[in-house]
Amino acid sequence: MAETTSRQTVLVTGASSGIGRAIASRLARDGYDVVINFLNNEAGAHQTLEQVRTNGGAGRLLRFDVGDRAAAAAAIESDITAHGAYYGVVINAGVTRDAAFPMLSGEDWDVVLRTDLTGFYNVLQPAIMQMIRRRKPGRIVAIGSVSGIRGNRGQTNYSAAKAGLIGACKALGLELASRAITVNCVAPGLVQTAMTENAPISQIEALIPMGRAGTVEEVAAAVSFLIAPEAGYITRQVIAVDGGLS
Q1: CA-based nearest residue to 144, from 217, 7, 241
Q2: 138: which strand partners?
Q3: Which of the following is catalytic: 32, 86, 158, 233?
Q4: Which of 103, 136, 188, 222 is deepest in the core (most CB within 10 A)?
Q5: Backbone angles phi, psi at 228, to 5 degrees
Q6: How far is 16 from 22, CA to CA, in rounded Å?
Q7: Which helix (H) or strand (E) holds 50?
Q8: What ranges in 177-239 are assigned the alpha helix state H?
Q9: Which sign, positive or negative, has the C-alpha torsion 74, 77, 81, 83?
């Protein structure tokens, strides 16, 4: 289906709160329309939608589990049929199940890998060909983690997923470069969100050269830069937003 609007549209997964909400809000401010993916936090998704509209963007909600391949494909294909292909996709949805490796259950491993790594495939696979068929530049940004660069104690599953995400971005970037579709990774360090509310913040801050946690807005700014047309010659890169930790 041909695109129904001259405005560029970006899908942001896991956008009902935290980093995802900040990214959606920033992209709306930058002039994009935003597809807000969520799973359980419907109230939060509506709050994100309100922010998107306040910042001048059109938005719509798209509910699906990034870890459920069939559900993700059905939702994305239906949305593209109705509204046209995406200019960009931000892979942000993620979970943690932290534990020392001897105590890490099989479910802890599977849930994190399924959401944080396999979700990359589940979301992009039904969207990529439609992006290619636009015959226009496009942008893919995956939200990784400093844990995927340097590893982190108690996060073997999460570190493995995020390291895999970096490898996936580098490989897919090779495939899509000739199509002018860039693929990059933003790797936050300690950022104050609901996901890190139980983390030993003061202990981690002592290891960070800048001596503080980051903000969701700082992560969103990096994504904004990579989504922009001016970033068309940047691909297969990992930008750490971590205060110098990595």
Answers
A1: 241
A2: 181
A3: 158
A4: 188
A5: -65, 150
A6: 9
A7: helix 42-54
A8: 201-205, 216-227
A9: positive
Instruction: Give the CA radius of gyration of the chain.
Output: 17
- Coil, strand or helix: which one is 237? coil
């942000």: which residue's tokens? Answer: 92
| Cα–Cα dist 19/31, whole Å | 19
List the one residue out of 59, 48, 47 whose CA is nearest residue 25.
48
Please say whether the beta carbons of 181 and 134 come within 8 A: no
**Catalytic status, residue 32:** no
Q: Which residues lie below 8 Å from residue 176, measured CB to CB, with a gap of 6+?
A: 128, 132, 138, 140, 182, 183, 235
Q: Any idea which residue has 């970006």 for tokens?
A: 10
For 212-245, how does the pLDDT look when each residue is reduced to its tens digit (9 = 90+)?
889 999 999 999 999 999 999 999 999 999 999 8
Cα separation, 196 vs 30, whole angstroms: 28
Whether the model clears a pTM of 0.90, i.e. scores above it, the answer is yes
| CA 158 from centroid of its chain's CA atoms | 15
